[in-house]
Amino acid sequence: MASFSCSSSSSVMSVMGVILLLFSVLLAAAEAPVPARSASDQMILAACKTVGGGSTYFDVTFCLGALGSAGGAGGYQDLAAVAVDLLATNATSTEAKIDRLLGGSGVEVKADDAALARCLRSCQSLYGGIVDDGPACTAAVNGGRFGEATAILEKAAAAAKECEGGFEKSSAASPLTAEDDDAFKLAKLAVALLRFASEPGNGHCCY
Ligand SMILES: *[C@@H]1O[C@H](CO)[C@@H](O)[C@H](O)[C@H]1NC(C)=O
C-alpha cells in the first residue's frame, strides 16, 4: 500500500512537472517578441496595397512576391527600379529558355512542329527587344524621366502579350505561359509604381 501511494504520488509529481514545464514554455512563447517589420518592409507592404489594390493586371500578392526581396527601398521610384530590374532578369532567362527550346539539334522542338518553332522565333525577337530596352528603362527611371520609362514598359507588356497570343493564334501549346504572365505583370507593376512616384510627396522631391 505504501509503495502504491508512493509511486502514485511520484507520478502525480511528474505530471505536475510536465504541466509546469509546458506552461512555462507556452509563457515564454507568448512573451517572445514578434519580429519587427523593418521600415522598408512596411513601405513595400503599403506600396503594394496601394498599387495592387487598384490594378486589374496584378494583385497585392504578386507585388509582394516581386518586391519582397527589395531591401532598403526608399520610395516608389526605387521600387519601380527594382521591378524594372526584375523584368530584365526575367526577360533574360526567358530568352535563354527560348534559345534552349529552339536550339541546336531541335531536341525540344521537333522539326515538323513548324508552327511552334515560328511562334518561338517571334517570341525570341520580342524578348530580345525587352532585354535590349532594359538599360534605357533603368536610366529613365533613375533619371526621373517617368514618361519615357512608362513607354518602354508598356512596349514590354505588349511584347509579352503578343508572344503568348502567337501560340493561341497558331493553336500551339505555349511553353512560355508562366514567363509571359510574369513579364506582363512586372511591366505593369513598374508602370503603376511610376504613376505614384510622380505624385508629389511620394518620390524623392525633397532631399
Ligand atoms: C520572374 O518574376 C517572377 C515574379 O516576380 C518571379 O517569381 C520569378 O522568380 C522571376 N524569374 C526570374 C528567372 O527572375
TrEMBL record:
GO terms for cellular component: extracellular region; plant-type cell wall. Transmembrane segments: none annotated. One of its GO terms (biological process) is plant-type cell wall modification. One of its GO terms (molecular function) is enzyme inhibitor activity. Residues 1-30 form the signal peptide. Coiled coil: none annotated. Keywords: Disulfide bond, Signal. SUPFAM superfamilies: Plant invertase/pectin methylesterase inhibitor. InterPro entries: Invertase/methylesterase_inhib, Pectinesterase_inhib_dom. Pfam families: PMEI (PF04043). Residues 39-193 form the Pectinesterase inhibitor domain. It comes from the Eukaryota. PANTHER family: OS01G0111000 PROTEIN, OS02G0537100 PROTEIN. Belongs to the PMEI family. This is Pectinesterase inhibitor domain-containing protein. It comes from Triticum aestivum (Wheat). The gene is LOC123094688.
